[in-house]
Amino acid sequence: AQSVAQPEDQVNVAEGNPLTVKCTYSVSGNPYLFWYVQYPNRGLQFLLKYITGDNLVKGSYGFEAEFNKSQTSFHLKKPSALVSDSALYFCAVRNNYGQNFVFGPGTRLSVLP
Amino acid sequence: ETGVTQSPTHLIKTRGQQVTLRCSSQSGHNTVSWYQQALGQGPQFIFQYYREEENGRGNFPPRFSGLQFPNYSSELNVNALELDDSALYLCASSLRGSNYGYTFGSGTRLTVV
């Protein structure tokens, strides 16, 4: 069975500081890993994905994530946070033959001015 | 290129009633998935439709049913509504076999009273 853990319900960072939102996963087969962001009263917006290849993945709005197979992690990072990055972030996984995503519970990011 | 549109945006129903939610998929996508996002939780997979047939189902009872039409749009039907069905219902479209993620709609907020 596939599962995703996001160990922090809430992450607070000051504007301009680097941010990290953590994600660990469990999946049989090769993992396909995704990050989505959700703003209030909106659907999910795609940020980035890892399918294969380079372990460091760059995505939208300056976000990046590092795939670590030995630690089964896929942490989301950004070098310099913006107030407008404040939102709910979801990590999701599926295996290479799965039809659906399994989402983590989400992490609320607050960037303080 | 149009995105995924869902209707209605908000809905209030009484326990025991039936509801139909609608979704128009993104142009070029042939697969539609439905997710339920309860307050404070990550999205949970309900089912997926491809070629007008159910193509995978999560842990939801049979009173959750769906349809996909030849133009790839879709409906989610829920019978005998329960208070716990109150949630944001997200529709996502994708292209089967693609390694890209889903494109999500903004969701329908269903409140059961």
Most extensive protein-chain contact, per-chain counts: A-B, 22 and 26 residues
DSSP strand content of chain B: over 45%
What spatial form of chain A do the alpha-carbon principal axes imply?
globular
State the distance separating the first and last CA atoms of chain B.
Answer: 38 Å
Q: What is the number of strand segments of chain B?
A: 11
* Helix percent band of chain A: under 10%
Strand content of chain A: over 45%
Compute the number of strand runs of chain A.
12
Can you tell me the overall shape of chain B?
globular
Alpha-carbon distance between the termini of chain A?
A: 41 Å
What is the count of DSSP helices of chain B, taking H or I runs of 4+ residues? 0
Uncertain runs of chain B? none
Structure notes:
The complex is a heterodimer of chains A (113) and B (113). By secondary structure, chain A is mostly beta strands. In chain A, 0% of the residues lie in helices and 53% in strands. Chain A contains no helices and 12 strands. In chain A, the strands form 3 sheets. In chain A, strands 2, 5, 6, 10, 11 and 12 form a 6-stranded mixed sheet that branches. Chain A has a 4-stranded antiparallel sheet with strand order 3-9-8-7, with no helix packed on it. Chain A starts with a strand and ends with a strand. Chain B starts with a strand and ends with a strand. At the A-B interface, β5, β6 and β11 of A face β5 and β10 of B.
